[in-house]
Amino acid sequence: MTNTAFARCARVLLTLALTGTLLSGCGYNEFQTKDEASKAAWGEVVNQYQRRADLIPNLVNTVKGYATHEKETLESVTRARAAATSFQITPEVLNNPEAFKKFQQVQGELSGALSRLMVVAEKYPDLKADASFRDLQSQLEGTENRITVARQRYIVTVQEYNVQVRKFPTNLTAMMFGYQTKPSFTVENEKAISTAPTVNFGK
What we know:
Structural class: mainly alpha
Largest sheet: none
Helix content: over 70%
Order of helices and strands: HHHHHHHH
Radius of gyration: 24 Å
């Protein structure tokens, strides 16, 4: 290798090293870490909501066997589940406040429909005594608790990411690379969806 080629190579390596140091120092790497953390936390939220949706058909069928006159309530749960499961969960949801709001809305409607179903079930002692129903109720209660935990973790990771976007000097990096704040669960919706449906019939 000639001296000229060696010098050119050294300059390239030095430039790459300086660029890496600058990007690291301005928070670029931290953005990557926090962005991936928020995506992972969101994936767990979606996973737990899907778990809940998967329980609903068996729950509805079990209730239907004892409460045939509760057609309207059963249909409202089925409709709410269909709306929740048909909502397209894409990475864009994390960066789109309107899409995120719609996601919250359909999940909140499903929570409300499930709560009404549980109130109906209270009127049927034979249903409450059914082993399958008790098992489903236990699974639903556990899933609602997991949803609460997953949602809280997401809120924390998004908060950390959003602080990174807004604070100086990493806000300059955010502007340079197009990082924007991510939506989180709103206060009014949090009240609706953080209250798990009442599923404890042992009292």
